[in-house]
Every structure is written in C-alpha cells, then in structure tokens.
Write a structure and sequence with these properties.
Layout (H helix, E strand, L loop, with lengths): L2 E6 L3 E6 L3 E4 L5 E4 L5 E3 L6 E7 L2 E2 L2 E2 H11 L6 H17 L3 H32 L9 H24 L5 E2 L9 H14 L5 H16 L8 E7 L8 E11 L2 E11 L8 E6 L2 H8 L3 H24 L6 H42 L4 H21 L11 E6 L6 E2 L9
Antiparallel strand pairs: 1-2, 1-13, 2-14, 3-4, 5-6, 6-10, 7-8, 9-12, 10-11, 11-12, 14-15
Helix pairs in contact: 3-4, 3-5, 3-6, 4-6, 5-6, 7-10, 8-9
C-alpha cells in the first residue's frame, strides 16, 4: 500500500508519493522497503507525470521499466487523456505477448479470492448453524448434506446478487469480451479445488461467478492504480485522469476509470485528490472519513432506537394496535433521521470543509502546492508510524510540481522525477 496525493489549480498540478514498498512472500511474510519509486515522467515532450500505487508490476514486468520504454517512444500529446489511453494501449500490446503462465496466474489472482470467500462464508455458517448449534435437527449424513447444500446455495446467491449490481469494466479495444478457454479452465480448476463435495449445478454457478468477476468493475486485491496528470499541448490548465488496471482478460487489458479532472476557469478551479490510503487526508479535507461516517451513523441508529423503546415503554396504550401504529411511525422517523444524516448532514460537512481548503488552493503558488502535497502524504505516514500494524506508508516523499512554466519545481526532498 501507499499514500499519494494530487493537488490541482490553474497554475500547476502537484503530485506526491511516499516510497514505502510492501513485499509479501506469502500471506504471512511481509517485508517493507522505504526506497521505492512511484512517481515518474510519462512524456519527454509534454509536461505529464504518472504515479503508481498498489501493484507495481504488469504481467510480471516492473511498471517503471514499461513507463521508461513508453516514454522513449511516444510523441507529443494534445491532451493528458490522449497520453493516458495511449499508455493503456501500450500496456495492452505488451500484455498480449505475456507467457500463458503469467496470464493464468492473473486470472487466478482475480477469481480465487472470491471463491475462497464463498467457501469461508459457507464454513462459518455450517459451524454456527450445524456444528455448534445445540438445537440442530441433523441426525444423519443425508440431513447434513441437505442442509449444507442449502447453506452453500444461499452463499452463492449472495454473491450473485452482489455481482448483479456491478457494471461491466472497460477493456482496451472494441467489442465484447469473448469466452476464453484458458480462463475457463483456470476457473473450473479453482472451483473444483474448493467445492469437491457439491453437485455440478452449484459448481457451475460458482464458475459463472468467477467469469463475472473477470468482466465486472470489481478490482482484485492485486490491481494497479495509475494516476496521470499534467498538460497536453492543447491544454491551458492541468488535467488528471486515474485508472485501476487489473491485468489481461481474454487478451485485453481490463481497466476502471476512477477520476477525470479538468481544471477550468468556470467550473472546477482547484481540487485535492488522495489515492490509496487516504483516510487521514479525507479527515483533513472533509472533517471526516468513511469510517467515521459509518461509526457515527451506527451510533445514532442505536441511540434513536433505544430512545424510541424507552419512550414507548413509558406510555400506557388502550390496545396493542395503537402501540404498534406508534411504533411503526417511530421506525419511519428513525430511518428518516439516519438517512438524512448520511445523505445531507455528512455531505454538508464534507462540502463546507472541502470548499474552505480548496478556495485557498485555487490561488496557491507552485512552491506552496509542493509543500502541501508533501505534508498530506506525511500526515498518513505519521499516522501509520504511531498506529498498530505494519508501517505501510513511509520513507522519503517524492513531490513533483508540473506546470507550463520553465521554473517547475520538485522535491524528493527534491527531485522532479526519478530517472530510471
């Protein structure tokens, strides 16, 4: 993991990234180095930079190597968006020629965690509802088989509903993704490993879930984040576009576009955008983050429910229907309160806090943009250093300030782009 930040105004864009790199030999062993490069120059002609986070390789090749090769071959770009999609096309053409073992490994990394989650959910429910339940009615092996099949069916249905809510991911190239025999064989082998005891119908449904994971906008744990920002030759103000790429699927690069920010005189004039581990930056910018919102909403929901119960218990009703009617009305009020908290109150807090900072960011000179970007990454680094767990953010901070002017400044404490 990492912490990265982009700050844009009409003068420039500042990019900052820490240098901690986490290497895992398996699920239990981790090693962290604080000398990784994540911030690079994408074009030698246009002032455009690229940051990478999460996965640092593409089809088992270090991304810095591919960025350097792309940079040496590319020509001028009219817009940052042109440069970004040209880079995706370059990765796609490179990935097509990856070894079959690499492609199979990528499919396995996307699909196996989902199948493993289904299997773990099944085991937890079997333990709770059958093995550890003193009231269980199971007496024979057939009883166990019937109930366990029902539990697995419900676990599968949960993920089917989840995937039904997700839209399709994007892929480099045109047309629909074709059925891939290599991917199909890998998915079948994974499902066979986890579901030996179940019938073919359930296995086929999990195979279908695996295929959907490949084409839906659900990034795997090994996705790579790309943040591309700067100026094309036709752009007066900076642009930022970010993607999450998830390897090659059926011979095409899978990607999800996450941000497209085009600084303008009349619309978006400045913006601060965090990436990867961003909860501390969100607290600074918005006054709260997603975890705080969940905790506050959960506390309020429990509190208003408890208040309702206490009030109703103190009222003498003429009949049960009157009590139930008031109870139903109170439940509607509770739901409306929590919904208003989530949809309006939190939004108002975030908007006001963000506006107060970004109103100042709009007029910041380039050196101040660099200092602010570095400070925001350092904020997350300090939090990780004094918190429990692995220190996944840290080391020297790379900062680049990209502008049209010749006096663009940068720090690594203080390098504009690592030239490797």
């Amino acid at each position: 993991m990492t912490a990265e930040i982009a700050i844009l105004n009409k003068y420039a864009v500042a990019l900052a990234a820490d240098s901690a790199v986490t290497i895992s030999a398996d699920d239990k062993e981790q090693k962290i180095f604080d000398s990784g490069d994540k911030l690079f120059e994408l074009s030698r002609i246009n002032p455009i930079g690229i940051m990478i986070y999460n996965g640092m390789d593409f089809v088992d090749v270090p991304l810095p190597v591919l960025i350097k090769k792309f940079r040496s071959k590319c020509s001028t770009f009219q817009t940052v968006k042109d440069a970004a999609f040209k880079f995706l096309e370059y990765l796609n053409s490179f990935g097509i020629n990856a070894p079959d073992t690499t492609k199979e490994s990528q499919i396995r990394k996307i699909v196996e965690p989902i199948v493993d989650r289904i299997s773990k959910k099944y085991r937890v429910r079997v333990e709770e509802e059958i093995i550890n339940d003193p009231k269980t009615s199971i007496k024979t092996a057939d009883d166990f088989r019937k109930i366990s099949t029902q539990i697995m069916t419900e676990c599968i249905e949960l993920y089917e509903r989840l995937l039904a809510t997700r839209v399709d991911a994007s892929f480099v190239g045109k047309g629909r993704i074709k059925d891939d025999k290599v991917a199909n064989d890998v998915i079948i082998s994974i499902v066979g490993k986890y579901m030996r005891r179940f019938n073919e119908n359930l296995k086929n449904r999990v195979v279908t879930i695996g295929k959907l994971c490949l084409i839906k906008d659900m990034p795997s744990g090994v996705f790579t984040g790309l943040v591309i920002a700067g100026f094309g030759s036709d752009e007066l103000f900076p642009t930022l576009i970010s993607f999450e790429i998830d390897g090659m699927v059926s011979g095409r690069l899978k990607y999800l576009e996450r941000n497209f920010i085009d600084i303008d005189r009349s619309a978006t004039r400045s913006l601060v955008v965090p990436f990867a581990q961003k909860e501390m930056v969100e607290r600074f910018l918005y006054g709260l983050d997603e975890k705080i919102q969940r905790d506050v909403a959960g506390f309020c929901k429990e509190a208003v429910t408890d208040i309702t119960k206490r009030v109703l218990d103190q009222i003498d009703f003429e009949d049960l229907s009157a009590k139930q009617s008031l109870k139903d009305d109170a439940k509607k009020g509770e739901d409306a309160f929590v919904r208003g908290l989530q949809e309006r109150a939190f939004s108002a807090i975030r908007t006001q806090s963000q506006a107060e900072i970004e109103d100042m960011v709009e007029f910041m000179p380039k050196p101040e943009l660099a200092r602010m970007a570095e400070a925001l990454v350092n904020l997350t680094s300090i939090k990780r250093r004094v918190s429990r767990g692995v220190e996944t953010v840290g080391g020297p901070i790379d900062v680049a300030v990209i502008s049209h002017a010749e006096d663009s400044c940068g720090l690594r404490e203080s390098i504009i782009f690592p030239q490797n």
